[in-house]
Specification:
- The protein is α+β, with helices and mostly antiparallel strands and 496 residues long.
- It has a domain at 1-53.
- Helix content is 60%, strand content 12%.
- The chain is built from nine helices and eight strands.
- The strands form three sheets. Strands 4-5-7-8 form a four-stranded antiparallel sheet, with no helix packed on it.
- Strand 1 (4-6) and strand 2 form a beta hairpin.
- Helix 3 packs antiparallel against helix 4 (157-223) and helix 4 (157-223) packs antiparallel against helix 8 (444-478).
- The protein is elongated, with a radius of gyration of 41 Å.
Length: 496
């Protein structure tokens, strides 16, 4: 027995009723030819259906966790936090003393000259007396030393620098939390979009099946001259339109899955969703009570304010003197003697004289840098005020989103409670319209309209619960914490 798939409907020979006997003769050959032509395609479709079992299957909770563990943006935010944490260690290292040491050996002439040279980095420094005549001979020279330097007092500059680095860490941490929230929000929305697309496909396929059954019945009546041929044409048109909507629904499902895969960071993989529990009644929940300042967006803006203030604090301490305790030991050797004679061979590679020194050094800031410093302070203060205004804007946005999300949840729950009533009425209307048509009391237009209403009611009834989940997700995102949403997903009435 050949099975011919037609628009999601399986048609078998046993499905033909007694009233279809006059049509068997002219349709038998068409059915046989259709079986032969579609056999390879149907086998391919069955193979594709078997491959569907190899798709990556995600629950809603699993998708949310997978995204924060693997999405590139989240990884980048984590590494940015690590980099900022390393910056704190660098700033704190300024409290440690310095110990610089060196050894040098050189071969050079010893022609010194009396006079002064302005500070520069081109001409090497020379020591020793001025000899009576110049010579091109060269000798070995050597030097070694170590300088210990520690800054016990800096009038708060290093502490301000550390606070600035810590403010950068706080900003990176807040940005990481906001990035996680945005990624999870996108994943949750994409997951629910896939579920909604699947439900739209189910409703469209059911509509095709009803239109197909109606078209066959109308053709039977028209062939027996019990109904005009215009009714059969209208039924065929409605069935073709339903088939078009079904194709569009399948396309929307493919695109929704591609978007879902991209939000997971799996753009090259095929993914699908586990809708277990999502279509069940959603349990009542208590709205999150997190205040607007606790939202990650507000935290990011507050961190930016703190960072600007810390930079302003650093600038306020850069014009203060700095005190250093220093100690040095060094030794030198040279092949040139005080009387101007030069030693040969390797004399000078050894160390002839050693010295030590210890003292206090006070470094004063550049006196003429006050104009530039004042401008930099003014710029830092303006940046602080600008970040404060952005923080106020973030609080306004978060507060608005929280109130809007609560209203959306209430509306979605009310719609979900009303759609079963709409579905029951549409089913009854469609049944009555078909009965009236079969009794000759109604036209094909009435039946087509009631079937359209039924298809719409079926989709709205299945998607209404998805809209509740979407509203709950938006509410959790508006409060900046998906903990309550995740617990609802894990609950018996939600998704596991």
């Amino acid at each position: 027995m050949c099975t011919v798939p037609q628009r999601g409907v399986t048609l078998r020979a046993s499905d033909l009723t007694i009233r279809q006997v006059p049509m068997i003769g002219r349709r038998a050959s068409a059915i046989a030819l259709l079986c032969a032509l579609t056999a390879p395609g149907w086998a391919h479709a069955q193979a594709a259906a078997q491959q569907d079992t190899a798709l990556l299957l995600f629950t809603l909770e699993g998708a949310l966790q997978y995204a924060v563990d693997h999405y590139p943006t989240v990884k980048a935010a984590v590494e940015q936090l690590n980099a900022s944490s390393a910056g704190v260690s660098v700033a704190r290292a300024a409290y440690l003393p310095r110990l610089d040491s060196l050894w040098q050996s050189n071969r050079a002439t010893a022609n010194n000259i009396f006079g002064q040279v302005l500070p520069q980095s081109v001409i090497p420094a020379m020591t020793g007396p001025v000899v009576s005549s110049a010579s091109s001979q060269s000798v070995w020279g050597s030097a070694t030393g170590a300088l210990f330097s520690w800054e016990p007092f800096d009038f708060g500059l290093r502490r301000a620098t550390v606070r600035n680095a810590e403010a950068a860490v706080a900003g990176a941490r807040a940005n990481q939390a906001l990035t996680r929230l945005e990624v999870q929000s996108a994943v949750g929305a994409a997951f629910l979009a896939v579920v909604a697309a699947e439900q739209a496909g189910v409703a469209a396929e059911a509509d095709v099946e009803r239109r197909d059954v109606l078209a066959r019945a109308v053709h039977t009546l028209a062939d027996n001259q019990l109904r005009p041929g215009a009714d059969a044409s209208r039924a065929d048109a409605e069935r073709a339109a339903a088939q078009t909507r079904f194709i569009e629904a399948r396309e929307a499902l493919v695109l929704a899955r591609l978007t879902f895969a991209r939000t997971l960071g799996l753009a090259g993989d095929d993914v699908t969703v586990n809708v277990a529990g999502l279509l069940a009644p959603v349990p009542a929940t208590v709205p999150p009570s997190a205040a607007a300042p606790a939202h990650p967006l507000a935290q990011v803006r507050q961190a930016a304010v703190d960072l600007a203030r810390s930079e302003e604090d650093v600038l306020s301490r850069t014009d203060r003197p700095r005190l250093f305790l220093q100690s040095s030991v060094f030794a030198r050797g040279s092949g040139a003697n005080f009387d101007g004679s030069l030693d040969g061979d390797v004399d000078g590679l050894g160390l002839d004289r050693a010295n030590w020194a210890a003292g206090v050094q006070v470094v004063f800031p550049n006196l003429f840098d006050f104009a530039s410093l004042r401008a930099r302070r003014a710029g830092a203060a303006a940046s602080t005020r600008a970040e404060g205004a952005r923080h106020d804007e973030a609080l306004l946005i978060v507060t608005h989103e929280q109130r809007a999300a609560t209203a959306r949840v209430d509306a979605a729950r009310a719609i979900a409670a009303n759609t079963p009533v709409q579905l029951a009425a549409a089913q009854q209307s469609e049944t009555q319209a078909r009965a009236r048509y079969e009794a000759g009391l109604a036209g094909i237009v009435e039946v087509a309209d009631t079937q359209s209403l039924l298809a719409q009611a079926e989709y709205l009834n299945s998607s209404a619960r998805i809209e509740v989940w979407r509203a709950l997700l938006a509410e959790a995102v508006a409060h900046g914490d998906l903990t309550s949403f995740a617990s609802l997903v894990r609950s018996p009435g939600g998704v596991r």
